[in-house]
Amino acid sequence: MTPDSDLIVIGGGLIGSALAWGAQRKGARVTLLDEGDVAYRASRGNFGLVWLQGKGLGHPDYMHWSIKAGQLWPEFSATLYEETGIDTGWRGGGGLHFCLSEKEMEARRHLIARSREEGAAIRIELLDREALSEIAPGIGPEVCGASISDLDGEVSPLLTLRALQNGFRKHGGRIVVDFTAEQVRRNRDAGFIVKSADGTEFSGRHLAIAAGLGANRLAAQLGLELGLRPERGQIVVTDRIAPFLRHPTNMIRQTREGTVLLGSSHEDAGFSTGTDMETVSGLCRAGTRLFPALRAARLVRAWGALRIMSADGLPIYDEAPDAPGAFVVTCHSGVTLASLHGLELGPALAEGHLGPAPRSMRSKRFALQTA
pTM of the prediction? Predict the structure, then answer.
């Protein structure tokens, strides 16, 4: 039995689509299995930040991996545009983390010092209120300052997802929509078989599970215990207003169209993607503390979405020990890491290995932590 593909990717979100795109454009025959709109797509609720300042402190491998992704984003976005004509909305130039007290300013000073000590290849500068006012006029009276980094930026998650899937198709990739993978198994002749509830099967020489919260069940069939859990984040958006914010921030982002995103929350709400007035009100209060003029803006939407969280919050890149050639890729930084997943990890998976993915991010670390 000859496998249908060189690589099957389960999961049509940002992670799976980036992996599939990267593998296909390097010449592999890739099938992308997408559960469709019933999936808990993290890209629906992603704030759209490529965010590096402070990421990975105390975890050098994750820090350097993330920074490399930030450095690759201009190339990644330009490549997608050349291939598809879709502008992902990438805008670099640095991101702002606001401080509302001297205590918060001191915490940012400490973060900057630790980043330097741990060798982060990122420039982070602390701006006082006067310097901040020059690049973010209209800040509220409580704002003491902000940190700004050279690599942070913003992007449209949905346009990025569209560009990845369009580019994947243009390179000859096959997307199967409304496919819910129920069973994965190793096959001596065909590599790996992925089967749906109605009995439809696809085979591939290699397999990548990037199914978000669905990865727990599928990976367990190949001997990998991931322990992923959902974390809900809520975001609110205003109507279009005159441009006032040139940089993305940790709490507010103004899109190119003029709408303003306020977010986001961190909630243990199970698999609920709902919203509640208490959280929405809290996000609005936080936004108007930073920019009082936002009190005149009109809210038009609020939504919730689920992040995919591991026990320690770090990504998982692993190969099934009893099924070589089957891999799991999962993280809650699908936007930031999309450039690396597409340009480097996807091609590596097509060849049957994890390439540059840090070895410290294998799932066995959880067993070691509890031993």
Answer: 0.95
